[in-house]
Amino acid sequence: MIRRVVPALGAVLLAVVAASAQTVPTPLQAFGFDIGQDRKLADWTQLTSYYEEVAETSRRVRIDTLGESTKGRPFVMLTITSAANQARLAELHDIQMKLADPRKISGDAELQHLLDQGKTVVLITHSIHATEVGGAQMAARLVWRLATSDDPEIKEILDNVILLDIPSLNPDGLQWVVDWYKQGLGTPWEGGPLPWLYQFYTGHDNNRDWYAFTQDETVLTVTKAQNAWHPQIVHDIHQMGATQARIFFPPYIDPWEPNVDPAITTAVNQLGTWMAADLEAEGKRGAVVAGVYDAFTPARAYQHYHAGARILSETASVRIATPVDISPDQLRPGRGYDASTSSWNFPDPWPGGHWTLKDIVDYQEAGALALLSNAARNRRYWLKNFYEIGKRAVDKWDRWPEAWVIPADQTNQTGVRYVLRILTMADVEVHKAEAAFSADGIRFPAGSWVVPMHQPYASFAQAMLEVQHYPDLRAYPGGPPLRPYDVTAQTLPYLMDVDAVALDQPVGVALSAPISVPRFAFTLPAHLRGPDAPRVAIYKSWQEPMDEGWTRWVFDEYRLKYDTLHDADIRRGGLASRYDVIVLQNQRAQSIRNGFRANQVPPRYAGGLGDHGVAALREFVQAGGRIVAVEQAVDFVTDLFGLQVSNAVDGLPSQDFYIPGSILRLRVDTATDVGEGAEAESVAWFSGNSQAFNVNDDRVKVLARYGSGDPLLSGWELGGSHVAGQPAILEASLGRGSVVLFGFQPNYRGQSVATWPLLFNALRR
Ligand SMILES: [Zn+2]
After folding, report:
1. How many whole angstroms separate alpha carbon 546 and alpha carbon 196?
2. Residue 702's CB: how many other CB atoms inside 10 A?
3. How far is the CA of 469 from the centre of ligand 1 (A)?
4. C-alpha of residue 129 to centroid of ligand 1, in Å
5. Element (H or E) spanning 524, and its range?
6. For residue 125, pLDDT beyond 50
7. Does position 442 have pLDDT exceeding 50, yes or no?
8. For ion ligand 1, residues whose CB falls within 5 Å
9. pLDDT category, 74, cuts 50, 70, 90?
């Protein structure tokens, strides 16, 4: 078209075209709507092609595809800094890696040079929880602004900061949620729930994977962003309920996990408080600090063990991209503040009213820019603090042992490999002992694995291997317990059935270079292989529980063949001719029976098993099938067959009984099919969904009991006597079939290797 115009004008137009080829497109040009517009969302295909265009047209932005998401979508990271910094990125990376490991720095002169020359490295991650759509939309506007603006504040950021931006930590979920939302526009279920997990295996638990590293997205982020750069600051952008504060920033409330360096806590405190102050200065009301979120579990905070400050932000939600109206009396108290009342940590309550996706992205972008300004202005502080944290770790904390040893001669090699994979993936240096040795009066065979604790990421190893003593936090003395934000234990030696020994003396034996551990290779138990293997199915409700997803993950890792059954598949009946075992993971009986209400979701996803499904499952067992039910699903099964089994801890007041995610002792009867080959002294992951059984039914056999005395091994427990010695796993013969009932979770977030044998053994004809 341009070539056909008259030559003189053509030359001008070609020049314009050439210039515009260098112009970064705005999100409006790319998507046809402004970021944050009501009921408008860019999907992952649009967003990734936009980022490609920005990287092509801006010398400040580069894009790298780190790998693929679980379902094969590109998982990308943008690196954003000034053009001058981009030109010397390799050199700046070398500086960062030296500051990350004080052992590599020759002396004070070199240190001063590195502190002078280095840049603050910031990682921002968006919308790991895919229904919290604001973060991933906001990323497009933030990237555009950083790519194009010449404001002094932006220039200051670009000169002093290297920003690594992962614009979606969950591309599969982003695409599903956007597609689902668009299909629902104008219907009664507009902005309603997605009827499957928004991360294929883990759903909302995908941000509880930051030490087990089970999912592809976690592995890519840890190996190719975190470990590749060891950022000083990580900003993880989330959303919360609509009726709380407008946005949360740290400080976190107590407790902090005790191996986190205090200089991380203080860094988090100052940065979060700064962000809240910056928003207030802009007139953005309703920011809360020091509420709701604690800093105990490493499952959500990889950075805290890698010399990085983790800043969580949580912005009040809308209905995906559909605005909401919140009346003042809907504003609710949260932990540590009340959304309707002014307090020191929430000085300027938002008064209620209309709240939109644009409000969300405006707040989130303001937060991200405040964080980046702090990183730029305090560049030398961030670098020095980072270096000092690493130095203290290399010098070793007093409370840490000299070394941990994982003896080579252990029966559970699956657990050993899993523990070693976790440690090494977190950049913990693990060595092999070249010969047998003795230490602290214990003899260890050659080939034992040694983790010396004088190393930069020793705090991670300590947090993984030691026993947790969660503080007894109460609303008032003798009063109800204060709920932890997540769980209270992660002791890998218990969860994974591995011996690990803390040594007070240095290990006096030659050690190999640090080892690396490849991806899992699990061997399926013999009874699940070959032509005689049972035909297994797992029930997948449209209100899909995360534990069901985690179970599919373990089955897939083991390459166990199974079918997935939706409500309609079960209602159809005739199950006994197709399956030997059906697994019902932790899900409320009411949810299994009734599912979503009509109008909450499109008709094909509404309703649960219903009467036909319930009858079909009863018939399945009577005809010879086996149901394996876990935690809350036990109630559904006991009801199905009128079993005289109840939950001994149901309805106890929380000050009398409370175990919010802890590791208990378990005694297994190894003379049964389910206990065969298992350890007699094992563990149980016990949480608020778990049960301890009372049994008053001759058809029921007890296969395992919680430990007698005090059953707690790691975490927090009030009133352990209520579960001590109580039945934990039951089996009942019913008609020609049977049911196996787990009171605790045998597959806790893909980590409880110790109890996988019990789950696998339960999968029998
Ligand atoms: Zn979230």
Report:
1. 10
2. 15
3. 27
4. 5
5. none
6. yes
7. yes
8. 129, 132, 238
9. very high
